[in-house]
Backbone:
């Protein structure tokens, strides 16, 4: 029987305790910053100490007991900074003790969030694709791996195994921080919408070669760039449904946005950033021309055509060409065209004309507010086959 690859108890203890400390802390952050800003740094140092605390603890110690030890450790290390009877400390510790009672292991939290994303995925597929598709079974593996966690001790990957999609979420406990915890839904959402839902449509082009079996380059402008913007917009809309509660929505959204920007502005990732930018321009373009296109919900149209494109198997190059063409029509230059925009004298006029032309062509191709990705390929003269 299938056994998910899990974190060791040691890693789970460290990550779960750190997450608890940060989750509660965000509710106190403003008060701390106003009164005792220097204590925030000490809190971060103390939370980093959970690593050695867990290593030193009895290896059979249960997670619940470890969380109690972690809280006691925080209290003793913050006491000298805040003062043992400081109201800031007392309220924080009492809040930690309250939250600890229902605090779930980090891997269980991730499972729950991904489970809700899968339900949403089915809903969006029903609204988008003309084909009756079901969200494939998605397994979640968790592991500890430093090289896969370039940002905030967190990373993700999607693979295919025995015909099922497997999402890996990687943690590197020593680097795992507040930003890492609040970005977990973002990483899951990226893996789910960009990769677990790619290439599912039974019709359409066949995969060309073995190397195209599954996966894409980490710099693929469609799946890593364009679709990353799409999933980020879905995540923004659905964060409360994914978390299953509302008290932390603002923090999760704030950190997801920061993670999205950070991820796409890393050096060497210009194409990915460009793909996300082209998607954002196309989204805005559909909103701008919604009346002319007679589309009541331009968001839905944007999600539909993006998801349908992603569902087509084996067209990695054509999808990337399409992103470049969309960008050119909307005034976004691909990285290798850097500089051209400053030379073209009729640039503004050209883009304005191109936008109008594109709106006209999309208007002709729309059927009941549905834009077939094949029609979009044709409009932009990209050969999908
Ligand atoms: Zn990716």
Residues:
């Amino acid at each position: 029987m299938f056994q998910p690859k899990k974190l060791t108890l040691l890693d789970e203890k460290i990550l779960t305790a750190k997450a608890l400390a940060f989750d509660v802390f965000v509710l106190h952050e403003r008060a701390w910053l106003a009164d005792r800003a220097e204590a925030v740094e000490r809190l971060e140092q103390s939370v980093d100490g959970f690593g050695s605390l867990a290593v030193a603890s009895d290896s059979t110690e249960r997670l619940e007991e470890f969380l109690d030890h972690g809280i006691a450790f925080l209290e003793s290390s913050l006491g000298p900074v805040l003062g043992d009877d400081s109201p800031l400390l007392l309220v924080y510790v009492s809040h930690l003790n309250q939250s600890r009672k229902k605090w779930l292991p980090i891997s269980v939290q991730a499972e729950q969030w991904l489970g809700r994303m899968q339900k949403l995925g089915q809903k969006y597929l029903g609204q988008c694709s003309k084909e009756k598709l079901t969200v494939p079974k998605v397994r979640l593996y968790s592991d500890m791996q430093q090289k896969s966690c370039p940002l905030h001790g967190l990373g993700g990957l999607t693979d295919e195994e025995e015909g099922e999609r497997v999402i890996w979420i990687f943690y590197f406990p020593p680097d795992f921080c507040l930003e890492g915890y609040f970005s977990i839904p973002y990483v899951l959402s990226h893996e789910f919408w960009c990769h677990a839902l790619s290439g599912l449509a039974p019709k359409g082009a066949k995969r060309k070669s073995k190397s195209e079996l599954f996966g894409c380059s980490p710099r693929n402008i469609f799946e890593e760039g364009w679709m990353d913007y799409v999933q980020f917009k879905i995540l923004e809309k659905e964060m409360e449904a994914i978390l299953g509660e509302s008290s932390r929505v603002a923090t999760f959204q704030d950190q997801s946005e920061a993670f999205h920007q950070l991820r796409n502005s890393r050096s060497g990732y210009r194409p990915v950033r460009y793909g996300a930018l082209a998607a954002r321009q196309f989204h805005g373009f559909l909103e701008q021309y919604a009346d002319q296109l007679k589309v009541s919900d331009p968001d839905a149209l944007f999600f539909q055509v993006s998801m349908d494109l992603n569902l087509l198997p084996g067209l990695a190059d054509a999808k990337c060409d399409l992103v470049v063409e969309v960008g050119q029509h909307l005034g976004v230059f691909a990285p290798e065209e850097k500089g051209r925009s400053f030379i073209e004298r009729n640039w503004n006029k050209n883009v304005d004309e191109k936008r109008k032309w594109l709106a006209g062509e999309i208007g002709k191709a729309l059927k009941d507010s549905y834009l077939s990705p094949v029609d979009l390929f044709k409009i932009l003269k990209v050969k999908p086959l």
Remarks:
- Residues 9-103 form one domain.
- Residues 109 and 185 are 10 Å apart (CA to CA).
- The mean pLDDT is 90.
- The first strand starts at residue 138 and ends at 144.
